């Protein structure tokens, strides 16, 4: 919902009353680079922890964190608040970027039979695309301030709905994470008792490392090729978004002055 308006907010905060703003491209590029590197290390950790503590518990984290940047711009879109949004958005996106979709797909895989998973994945992706289109369409009829306020309210409602109505799935004790290297012990979380400091230390010691991710890439040629395609797709998408941030305001501003 906020995608159509974030360009105007960025231009107004960074380069007010200017048709072009190269600083916006640099800020967007730096943000995408930091988010990408952070996601590279955080996503395997989130997936690994969701295997131990359940999808619902881990879904709560990114869905809750995504509310904070929206709430900042819902309150004010001045320069100081924009930079606060920029920093928090960069930090929270390391955990939130893509993790909600991945955990949602994992939740569907846990609850849908194997023969119906492909159809369920397609339906879930279609619903996500429809939500994006509806959010963009609704933003057309809202002011900039109202757009972020509505987006914040929707994010809060989604998190509350998930916590109340989404049934949790019991974690299978026999579940093993194939990304981990051999010799690493699997730690089963005890939901009845509080986690001791020793267990917490073991959990973070057993998180997937860079070596684990490289091992997984080397274990399957098809997976490696899919990762390469995903990398270049994300790279082109980030470059397109950064270019549009500067190109469209400049073109529209020039057309407006020529009228």
Automatic annotation (TrEMBL):
UniProt keyword Transport present: yes
Membrane disposition: Multi-pass membrane protein
Organism: Linum tenue
Keyword Ligase: no
Keyword line: Membrane, Transmembrane, Transmembrane helix, Transport
Signal peptide (residue range): none
GO CC annotations, alphabetized: membrane
Principal subcellular localisation of the protein: membrane
Name assigned to this protein: Major facilitator superfamily (MFS) profile domain-containing protein
Transmembrane segments: 23-46, 58-76, 120-142, 148-166
InterPro entries recorded: MFS, MFS_dom, MFS_trans_sf
Top-level division of the source organism's lineage: Eukaryota
PANTHER family linked: GH21943P-RELATED, MAJOR FACILITATOR SUPERFAMILY DOMAIN-CONTAINING PROTEIN 10
Compartment annotation: Membrane
GO MF annotations in UniProt: transmembrane transporter activity
Chain segments annotated as coiled-coil in the UniProt record: none
Residue stretches making up the Major facilitator superfamily (MFS) profile domain: 1-259
């Amino acid at each position: 919902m906020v995608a159509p308006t974030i360009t105007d907010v960025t231009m107004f905060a960074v380069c007010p009353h200017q048709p072009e703003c190269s600083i916006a491209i640099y800020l967007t590029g730096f943000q995408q680079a930091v988010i990408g590197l952070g996601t590279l290390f955080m996503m395997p950790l989130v997936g690994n922890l969701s295997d131990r503590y359940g999808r619902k518990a881990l879904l709560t984290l990114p869905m809750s964190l995504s509310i904070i940047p929206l709430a900042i711009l819902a309150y004010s879109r001045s320069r100081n608040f924009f930079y606060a949004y920029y920093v928090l958005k960069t930090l929270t996106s390391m955990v939130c970027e893509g993790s909600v979709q991945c955990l949602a797909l994992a939740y569907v895989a846990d609850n849908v039979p194997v023969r119906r998973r492909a159809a369920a994945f397609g339906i879930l992706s279609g619903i996500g695309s429809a939500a994006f289109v509806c959010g963009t369409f609704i933003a057309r009829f809202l002011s900039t301030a109202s757009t972020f306020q509505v987006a914040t309210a929707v994010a809060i409602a989604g998190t509350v709905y998930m916590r109340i109505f989404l049934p949790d799935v019991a974690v299978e004790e026999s579940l093993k994470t194939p990304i981990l290297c051999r010799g690493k012990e699997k730690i089963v979380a005890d939901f009845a008792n509080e986690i001791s400091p020793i267990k917490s230390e073991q959990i973070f010691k057993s998180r997937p490392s860079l070596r684990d991710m490289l091992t997984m890439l080397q274990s399957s040629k098809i997976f490696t090729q899919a990762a390469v395609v995903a990398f270049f797709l994300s790279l082109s998408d980030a470059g397109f978004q950064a270019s549009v941030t500067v190109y469209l305001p400049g073109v529209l501003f020039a057309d407006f002055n020529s009228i």
